[in-house]
Amino acid sequence: MRKAQAKKLPLAPDPKFNDKMVTRFVNCLMWGGNKSVVLTAFYDALDKVTKISGEEGYEVWKRALTNVTPSVEVRSRRIGGATFQIPTEVRADRKISLSMKWLIRFSRERNGKTISDKLANEIIAAAKGEGSAFKKKEDTHRMAEANKAFSHFKV
Q1: Which of 73, 132, 140 is nearest to 104 (CA)?
Q2: Which of 3, 18, 23, 146 is 20 to 30 A removed from 10 (C-alpha atoms)?
Q3: What is the pLDDT of residues 15-38, one digit of tens each?
Q4: Whole-angstrom Cα distance, residue 19 to residue 56?
């Protein structure tokens, strides 16, 4: 076990929007370590979102992230031989991580030719309050609601 918690390295903001959240999203999206390719794909996706929705792609992406962000989740806890799903509040940093991971995961699973097409479609769906990533958030909240009888077992 560590003596001290690992330090978080500061992220550099992205070149186009000057936003650290975009850098964090691109880092999650990246496979194989070629950041410039992924950054281009992300910007292409935002351009496609702008064309399709008629709104600013960056604003739609931020709204999609907000719509997908969970506020509660269930954690397994073993008590007296039984495992209970205990609803807990999600930390602020984890909220952002979960929403980004879900958006990326479900955009990869979508139909489409390129990652920018898939990502654009998932962003638009999430911004409208539909799509797989939004459904995942709703399922998580529903599960927490169903298990709120066990909330007194909190860690």
Answers
A1: 132
A2: 3
A3: 999 999 999 999 999 988 899 999
A4: 15
Within the chain, what is the greatest distance between any pair of CA atoms? 56
Task: Report the alpha-carbon distance of residue 38 to residue 44 in Å, rounded.
Answer: 10
Going along the chain from its start, the domains and CATH numbers come out as 20-26+33-153 (1.10.455.10)
User: Do the Cβ atoms of 127 and 60 come closer than 8 Å?
Assistant: yes
SS3 87: strand
Say what the pTM is: 0.90
Residue 27 tokens read as 């880092």
Strand 72-79 relative to strand 82-89: parallel, antiparallel, unpaired? Answer: antiparallel
**Cβ(144)–Cβ(73) below 8 Å:** yes
Q: Distance between CA 139 and CA 26 in Å, rounded?
A: 26
pLDDT tens for 84-122 read: 888 999 999 999 999 999 999 999 999 989 999 999 999
State in Å, rounded, how far the first CA of the chain is from the last one. Answer: 20
Place of tokens 């991580």: 97
